[in-house]
Design goal:
2 domains; three-stranded antiparallel sheet; about 30% strand; about 150 residues; single chain; Ribosomal Protein L9, domain 2; alpha+beta; Ribosomal Protein L9, domain 1; elongated; four-stranded mixed sheet
Length: about 150
């Protein structure tokens, strides 16, 4: 079954992509949730016209995201956390804290677009995180976890 996605879905595709899914997943979840529409010939023609009109705006956004990625590549931020004497953190550092630190540095990034290589950061030190600025434009940001 082919569907047209109305929004980005992690692991499936991006907005306006035509993807092939299992019939039950499309019919029972994606379409009722309003996340996708059935990819009929008419809907594909409408999608092609919308994509054609949107391509100019998308190119502008892509250029802006590329310049932001170059700026973010050189940024190093610090995230404060309460830690014990051995260097272990009470709790863990999350993408919310990284988003707040980036916002203080002047970069407005949504927390859902930040992926950390390590699942849970529970010690002081230097780490890297991937920030997805656009579909395929990703910047790596180095951040240091320091004791408060």
């Amino acid at each position: 079954m082919e569907v047209i996605l109305k929004q980005d879905i992690k692991g499936l595709g991006f907005r306006d992509d035509v993807v092939s899914v299992r019939p039950g997943y499309g019919r029972n979840f994606l379409i009722p949730q309003g996340v996708a529409t059935l990819a009929t010939e008419t809907n594909k023609k409408i999608l092609a016209e919308v994509v054609k009109q949107r391509s100019f705006k998308e190119e502008k956004i892509r250029k802006e995201a590329t310049s932001n990625a170059e700026k973010l590549a050189g940024v190093s931020i610090s995230v404060g956390a309460k830690a014990g004497e051995s260097g272990k953190i009470f709790g863990s550092v999350t993408n919310i804290q990284i988003a707040e630190a980036l916002k203080k540095a002047g970069y407005d990034v949504e927390r859902k677009n930040i992926e950390m290589k390590e699942d849970s950061i529970k010690a002081l030190g230097t780490y890297t995180a991937k920030v997805r600025l656009y579909k395929d434009i990703v910047a790596e940001v180095k951040f240091e976890v320091v004791s408060e």
